[in-house]
Amino acid sequence: MASRIYFDHSATTPLDPRVRAAMEPYLDGAYGNPSSLHREGREARGAVEKARAQVAALLGAEPSEIIFTASGTEADNLALVGANRAAGGGHHLITSTFEHAAVLETCHFLERAGTQVTYLPVDRDGLVDLGSLLNTLRADTRLVSVMTANNVVGTLQPIAELAHIVRAHGALFHTDAVQAVGKVPIDVNELGVDLLSLSAHKLHGPKGVGALYVRQGVKLDPVVFGGGQERGLRSATENVAGIVGLGAATALAREELAEEAARLAAWRVRILESLRETIPHAYLIGHPVKRLPGHLCLGFAGQEEGMLKLLRALDEAGVAASSGSACSSSHAGATEKVLEAMGFDAQQARGLLRVTLGRFNTEDEVNRFLQILPQAVASLAPVRNEVSYAISK
Ligand code: PLP
């Protein structure tokens, strides 16, 4: 039997065996607490600091600017709540309508606590409009948060331009780069961001560990209180093995990103070209070019209601794909909200197929997928005649 095809890398990625090998000593023998002064503690501290330098190197940051957290979600929470509290609460915050729940829910929490939040619209491709940002900035705007890459549709935002506008205005700029780090080049100084969130499990590292880049001089208050680890910004005994895994994953990404991104982008283009022939009513959602290399978000005109059936058919045929954000399965409607924010109607918003490629996929898997998908789509209810979209992008 053919092996399964994992095409859901935006949900999570398999642990790279090289990352696992780097972590193993810290799951077993090297169990010291990095805050302890004895040899075991010093060994753990050394491993944590090496990982900090590895993460910083991928981002073009200083090691002292990296704060380890328990997830991308926690990094987002620390950025938004921490910056808000450090500024004395209240004030004005700007984000976009189609952020991940880790940002949106944090904004809702801050709204309940008295902060005014403006949600910037996005266009049909999922891009935030620079003009609407300019119109929305106020004298009391303290922070703007716009994600680098959207998890559902794959669109990449013009982060450098957005950050430039925001910092010229005197506010802080945060980006949730959880989907982008390790997939596209990120340099915090070229982008000009103040705060940036990432998560290990999206770049072939372990689950349950993330980091927040905090530009030197940016003031944050903690959201977790305790023993004062991580410069007092994230108390708790460090997850040494997880942090080592994140460090190893970023070191691998630094070496392999360019080659990997080119390979995945070429497959993405090949898949789209093939689908133009085999499923003419399929269309691409998200920006045609400004998107994550291995990320495809597809709609099938007139067949949107059949998406769960399609996912089941693909699963049975050996393909793991998704209907949107895995992080939102307990968060009904989050995926739909992303599409509706882009101007798709409710029916289209319910019917997307997300196919996200990753490091260990092969040419053979791409070929098999190109056989399987048209058959699975053909098994759905027939296309309504009056609807016609094409893969124009
Ligand atoms: N932000 C984005 C854009 C994501 O896609 C995700 C997870 O899918 C998160 C934040 C949350 O990261 P974590 O799963 O590490 O909490």
Describe this protein's structure.
- With 393 residues, this protein is of the alpha/beta class.
- The protein folds into 2 domains: 5-12 and 256-378, Aspartate Aminotransferase, domain 1 (Alpha-Beta Complex); 17-252, Type I PLP-dependent aspartate aminotransferase-like (Major domain) (Aspartate Aminotransferase, domain 2), CATH 3.40.640.
- The protein has 12 helices and 12 strands.
- It has helices at residues 17-27, 39-59, 72-86, 101-112, 130-136, 159-168, 188-191, 240-278, 307-316, 334-341, 346-350, 363-378, and strands at 5-6, 66-69, 92-96, 116-120, 141-145, 172-176, 195-199, 210-214, 282-284, 295-300, 319-320, 352-356.
- It has a 7-stranded mixed beta sheet with strand order 2-8-7-6-5-3-4, sandwiched between helices. The chain has a 3-stranded antiparallel beta sheet with strand order 9-10-12.
- The protein is globular, with a radius of gyration of 21 Å.
- Residues 386-393 have low confidence and may be disordered.
- Pyridoxal-5'-phosphate is lined by residues 71-73, 76, 100, 102, 147, 151, 176, 178-179, 199, 210, 327.
Topology:
Layout: E1 5-6, H1 17-27, H2 39-59, E2 66-69, H3 72-86, E3 92-96, H4 101-112, E4 116-120, H5 130-136, E5 141-145, H6 159-168, E6 172-176, H7 188-191, E7 195-199, E8 210-214, H8 240-278, E9 282-284, E10 295-300, H9 307-316, E11 319-320, H10 334-341, H11 346-350, E12 352-356, H12 363-378
Parallel strand pairs: 1-11, 3-4, 3-5, 5-6, 6-7
Antiparallel strand pairs: 2-8, 7-8, 9-10, 10-12
Bound molecules: pyridoxal-5'-phosphate (PLP).
